[in-house]
From TrEMBL:
Family statement: Belongs to the GTP-binding SRP family. SRP54 subfamily.
Gene Ontology molecular function terms on file: 7S RNA binding; GTP binding; GTPase activity
Gene Ontology biological process terms in this record: SRP-dependent cotranslational protein targeting to membrane
Chief location: cytoplasm
UniProt source species: Pyramidobacter porci
Keywords, sorted A to Z: Cytoplasm, GTP-binding, Hydrolase, Nucleotide-binding, Ribonucleoprotein, RNA-binding, Signal recognition particle
Domain notes per entry: Composed of three domains: the N-terminal N domain, which is responsible for interactions with the ribosome, the central G domain, which binds GTP, and the C-terminal M domain, which binds the RNA and the signal sequence of the RNC.
Phylogenetic placement of the source organism: Bacteria, Thermotogati, Synergistota, Synergistia, Synergistales
The protein, known as: Signal recognition particle protein
Entry GO CC: signal recognition particle
Protein role: Involved in targeting and insertion of nascent membrane proteins into the cytoplasmic membrane. Binds to the hydrophobic signal sequence of the ribosome-nascent chain (RNC) as it emerges from the ribosomes. The SRP-RNC complex is then targeted to the cytoplasmic membrane where it interacts with the SRP receptor FtsY.
Gene name as annotated: ffh
Catalytic activity: GTP + H2O = GDP + phosphate + H(+)
Subcellular localization: Cytoplasm
Amino acid sequence: MFDSLKERLESIFSGLRGRGKLTEEDVQQALREIRRALLEADVNYKVVKDLVEKIRVRAVGADVLESIMPARQVSAVVYEEIARIMGEGSRGIDISPQPPTLVMMVGLQGGGKTTSSAKLAKKLSKSHKPMLVACDLRRPAAVDQLRVLAGQAGVAFFGPEASETDVVALSQRALAYAASHLIDVLVFDTAGRLAVDEEMMAELDRMKAALDPHEILLVVDAMSGQEALNVAEAFNNRLGVTGVVLSKLDGDARGGAALAVLAATGVPVKFAGVGEGLDAIEQFDPRRMAERIMGMGDMAGLVEKIKETATETDIRQMAQSFKKQRFTMDDLLAQFAQVEKMGPLDKVMEMLPGAVASKMKDLPPEALDDKRLLRMKAIIQSMTKAERRDPAIIKGSRRRRIAEGSGTTVQMVNQLLKQFEQMSELWKRFGKMGKKRSLLGGLGGMFRR
């Protein structure tokens, strides 16, 4: 996400750092480049004009131009202003003190509304008991899709009876069911259209009047660019939207909608879809998103992912290995499994700071291929228990057998064993220091050829 904009900004600030002391003309030239980069990222031109002007006022002041590191000061100003236009702080679901909390998901057909509803319900299931309610009664396929997604997400589902056409009556029955089954959050997946029309809006009006929902979340396709703002304005003017869910943000290299939706409509972005899996939804944090755009990475998000995927068993096994100062192939296999649970490697690398990420870009494409991780796991799984405990016994004939058993090559087995030796030394060193090695830091070398 934001790849194009991030690369352009990195290039602009690299040029500023190369100049040392900056003049007002240097900053004005950089601002022209920033304006062009934002417009190419499909950010609304009015938002761009306002943003660049605020940056200009702050960046050409004496306290910036006469500072010891003016280029860094200008970069900090741009970061703060980008974060500002996206909102003040992260905002999640407004949970009602008197359950159930009612969430209406609205949006156009094809924007990812049904999938986003399931993702949100799964995210909420960590601390609540949500239920998905299928309210698109014109498309039976939408009801079936939501039923399947609810099963995959492990949350409750409530759908229409045969030939039911009254969405308000369906909603009332869902409320009664929730009250008798201790459901404390209801997510209503409403009907969509290919475009905003009166019939759809009238139905949503009736639902809003009957339910008085705590949240009305508009799902918009981040890849639709400027059109996302038009859709947001139309729904907000009619329904009073409380928040936006940006779907498919991972597929949009420009990201203009994310930058401009709050500034253009006054509606905050609350969640962002960052992948296809049901876990691939994040609570939108303007500052963390601005850090990604500026090439600072998202280390807080990365730590959260590690915490979410690490089980008590994983932590206990790692602690025992550090205590013994002994690293085995089973330990390495466990770490591979944890990295795999964190999602695609290229998405994980997006969360690393620019300096680290740029080094990772120098690796061959296959080094960040998830299939490579699967092949390395297969190599370890083809070893005997004795070989996993003591890889030093793996000589020529054993290496050929392991390669054949894992469907790889002897060369790949050799590469894994060599990298294992290096990581084993690191493990011992950090064990003696009484510190735990960072998961990704330790695995970084494992993906080098």
